Amino acid sequence: MFTPLCIRTLLFFSPLAFSLNLHAQNASAPVADSGAQVSASVTQSPEVAKLLQKMASVPHTLNYQGSFTYQHKDNPSLQSFRIIHWVEDGVEHERLQHLNGTEREFVRSGKAIGCESLGNQLLQGKISQLGANLARMDELYRFEISGTERVAGREATALLALPLDAYRHSSLLTIDNETGLVLKSWLVDESARPLERYQFIDIDFSPDLKSMQQQPAAKLQRSATSKLSECNPSELKQPEHWRLAWVPPGFAFVGQRQVRNQIDMLMYTDGLTTFSVFIEAASGAIPEGVASRGATLAVMDSLSYQGKSYRITVVGEIPVVTAQKIAQNIGGI
């Protein structure tokens, strides 16, 4: 979630680009149910709560542009990007430009300022407003402030998020003290091996807005709009047509949409981590297995429902045992 939003969107909304190349050698691997339950909560300190609230709310309202590096475990070479973020007429906009290789960019039109997603509400501790029986963030993660850092010339605070079960990864987030923007992020697996990391190398919070908006488009451009999650939800909803019999503790359904070729996409979050489930009608043999790109994992499985076959693909920043258990516990309504 904390990679700049447009990179995460590229990985999340284009899962089939790599999930269709899954290898069958992982298909028969049993799902290892660790039996881990959510541990007793560790009281969240006021300092941590303040950081999480600022991180979930303030950055959406800012105009800024900056450059950062990105690296994941499957590609040791550093990738460089420039991100441009601005608010116009109360609506967020972003442009993500690749600084290496072919000239290309990703453009995102966001939601109105003041529109809080479910994930942001979870981060800010507003669960009670939803009337939901969801675990609090401090029942899912142990948060530790590990000191101060200077990133891209700015003073920041390093926050460690350690999961209290086996169903999610650990994160080290370096958060700008003034704005709440995540300036550096490491996502690591259960063996403390980095899965992906990014870090700003320069950032300007007082850019010339007109100049940013008038920058010419790249030769290759993709765009997206944020229409998936409901704005300021007052209650939790469930998917239409499909039922997930198991999701990790603390994850809530964000929303659903149809993507290319009538594929149903269901999205879930715990506030820090996200995963999506793609359900597609299929014929013939359905490949099963596991693939990954950095921290983003894809597990493909099959489902037979009312005499029809479906391809199930679970994509997210979650361990493989989590994705497999989700995929094997899906049914129709």
Textual characterization of the structure:
The protein is an alpha+beta fold. It folds into 2 domains: 5-14 and 33-225, Lipoprotein localisation LolA/LolB/LppX (outer membrane lipoprotein receptor (LolB), chain A, Clam); 242-332, Phosphorylase Kinase, domain 1 (2-Layer Sandwich). Helices cover 16% and strands 44% of the residues. The chain contains 8 helices and 18 strands. It has helices at residues 5-13, 16-19, 46-57, 118-123, 127-130, 137-140, 209-213, 320-327, and strands at residues 64-72, 75-88, 91-98, 104-112, 141-151, 154-163, 170-176, 182-188, 194-204, 220-225, 242-244, 252-259, 263-269, 274-282, 289-293, 296-305, 308-316, 330-332. The strands form 3 sheets. The chain has a 10-stranded mixed sheet. Strands 12-13-14-17-16-15 form a 6-stranded antiparallel sheet. It has a two-stranded antiparallel ribbon with strand order 11-18. A hairpin with a 2-residue loop joins strand 15 and strand 16 (296-305). It is globular, with a radius of gyration of 20 Å. The model is unreliable at 8-41 (pLDDT under 50).
CATH topology of the largest domain: outer membrane lipoprotein receptor (LolB), chain A
> What is the percentage of strand-forming residues?
35-45%
Q: Cα distance, first to last residue?
A: 30 Å
> Which strands sit side by side, in order, in the main sheet?
5-6-7-8-9-1-2-3-4-10
Number of domains: 2
CATH fourth-tier homologous superfamily of the largest domain? Lipoprotein localisation LolA/LolB/LppX
> What structural class is derived from the secondary structure elements?
alpha+beta
Tell me, briefly, the overall form.
Answer: globular
CATH top level label of the largest domain: Mainly Beta
What is the CATH architecture descriptor of the largest domain? Clam
